[in-house]
Amino acid sequence: MNNLPETNNCILELENGWLTICFNRPEKRNALSEDLLLEIKITLESVESDRSIRGILFRGTGGVFCAGADLEGLKKIATSGVNARDLAVEMSTQAGSVFERINKMPQITVSVVEGAAMAGAFGIACATDILITMADARYALTETKIGLTPAQIAPYVINRLGFAQARRLMLLGSSFNGQKAFKMGMADYLATTDNELVEYINKIKEKVRKCAPNAVSITKKILVENHSVNPKKAAELFSDCIVHEEGREGFASFFEKRKPYWNVDK
Predict the structure, then answer these.
(1) DSSP assignment, residue 258?
(2) Euclidean distance between CA atoms 99 and 234, whole angstroms
């Protein structure tokens, strides 16, 4: 059995050749803190070369997949003065490296979305090979609405949804439910009950079991070869938004529960 790392912000379960990484910050709706991102990255690194692990499931505790980036952490960065941009680049690069690693893992990766998949979590869902969604799950690309850009996740959203549809959703900060995600082709499986969700997970595991691990690994390498992203460049673009006056206003309006100045009726 693989020696998995010790984690505090996610629960790891290894059973019958499948690793489940369960985001475990229910008090923050499993938001992607720096510590959680680091634990995901370390966990993936520890199993990358292990062909006895046939697949990796990403889930969230408390009935919520993930609320996206930890906005309290981003707000602190945005208001940290002269070091704000450097800190933002570092944080965004770390997040981007996690999305990239998920996308390039040699094992089959599956997102199981319940509750919500917002912003960065939307990116995780798009970066995995297969997406199972509950019908009432909520998806949102909220970045532009709070003065930010989905730079790190954009390539994965485009790859999964196609350019025209991804462009519309990202520019307009769109939100929709799991049923719509399935209808537009984003989600591969749609579950309306917990039992259906389990059935789909088991069905995928059964299908993966019939495929040779090395063949899967090589095929995935071919698939991602021409769909790479530059996390450093994406981090710089994201960081420019954080330190911009719109980014600071976006965070302020979010926490003060009001509309930002660009969304005030004239």
Answers:
(1) S
(2) 12
Q: What is the largest CA-CA distance in the chain?
A: 62
How big is the chain, counted in residues? 266
CA distances from 262 to 101, 172, 237 (A): 36, 14, 20
Q: What is the H or E stretch that residue 102 is in? A: helix 84-104
Work out the burial of residue 196: count CB atoms within 10 Å of its CB; fewer than 13 is exposed, 13-18 middle, 19 or more buried.
middle
pLDDT tens for residues 115-156? Answer: 999 999 999 999 999 999 999 999 999 999 989 899 999 999
Report domain extents, the chain.
10-225
- What pLDDT digit, counting tens, does each position of 50-65 carry? 999 999 999 999 999 9
Fold observed for domain 10-225: 2-enoyl-CoA Hydratase; Chain A, domain 1 (3.90.226)
Q: What are the φ/ψ torsions at residue 191 (nearest 5 degrees)? A: -115, 140
Residue 253: how many other CB atoms lie within 10 Å? 19
For 180, residues 6+ apart whose C-beta sits below 8 A from its C-beta are 139
d(CA 67, CA 240): 22
